[in-house]
Amino acid sequence: MTTTERTKRLLLVEDEESLRSSLRLNFELEGYDVTTAARGSEAMERIRGARFDGIVMDVMLPDVDGFTICETMRLEGDRTPVLFLTARTLPQDRIRGLKSGDDHLGKPFELEELLLRVQKLMARSDGGSSRVGPSKRTFGTNAVDFDSFEVVGQRGLHKQLTQREIMLLKLLMDRANEVVAREEILEKVWGYDVFPTTRTIDNFIVSFRKYFEVEPRDPQHFMSIRGVGYKFVP
């Protein structure tokens, strides 16, 4: 890294103290400005409080697993490149990691390989923002702007949604025609420091029907699947 280049900021999320310290030292020797976190909730605080050029994250953390953290980041519009470190090597784990993140390296690993992968990871953030650009979607006669949180709904409605409303809406729209379980919604939209009930989600769905359905009592877009969860139908 030359003196004319901006120092790249790296977030390292690893609960094993000795490994975290060793990796931090090696990343700093590579010239990165390293911030660390030992727990998933701590990582989310770091991510929401600063911008990073890349994230190296263990999957198996004490409170919130790395996959869920990354999926929550994406719902919030954060596209910072993420490399997962994990001892979980089943195909479904690798697939989930690559769907939500950008790279996946199994434990144990060679340090040289990790450093090369992080170098490539950091290159992905060059020349661009870690945040998603303009993101507007339509369904029926409705329109949603995920950047401004503004929606155009039925009966001439123009409204600015809350962050949790927009996160829930994005989660459902990203998984169109798929039933999303209540537990997954509570985990990804509300997180771990609050204790909402499934009734809280019901209230949000009722609001969405008022905003977007031609006939809220006969919904065509926001469906409740009894005993399971909720489904968005475009």
Would you kindly provide a written description of the structure presented here, covering whatever features stand out?
By secondary structure, this protein is an alpha/beta fold. It has two domains: 9-123, Response regulator (Rossmann fold, 3-Layer(aba) Sandwich); 136-232, Arc Repressor Mutant, subunit A. Helix content is 39%, strand content 21%. The protein contains eight helices and twelve strands. A five-stranded parallel beta sheet has the order 2-1-3-4-5, with helices on both faces. A four-stranded antiparallel beta sheet has the order 6-7-8-9, with no helix packed on it. Strands 10-12-11 form a three-stranded antiparallel beta sheet. A hairpin with a 2-residue loop joins β6 and β7 (142-145). The protein is elongated. Mean pLDDT is 87; it is low at 127-134.
Main attributes of the structure:
single chain, 234 residues, alpha/beta, Arc Repressor Mutant, subunit A, 2 domains
CATH topology name of the largest domain: Rossmann fold
What is the topology, as strand order, of the major beta sheet?
Answer: 2-1-3-4-5
- The arrangement of helices and strands along the chain is EHEHEHEHEHEEEEHEHHEE
Based on secondary structure, the structural category is: alpha/beta
The residue-averaged pLDDT reads 87
CATH architecture label of the largest domain: 3-Layer(aba) Sandwich
The low-confidence runs, each spanning 5 or more residues with pLDDT under 50, are 127-134
Number of domains: 2
- The CATH class label of the largest domain is Alpha Beta
Fraction of residues in β-strands: 15-25%
| Name of the CATH homologous superfamily of the largest domain | Response regulator
Structural shape: elongated
Gyration radius (Cα, Å) is 20 Å
The beta-strand count equals 12
| Number of H- or I-type helical stretches | 8
Major sheet summary line = 5 strands, parallel
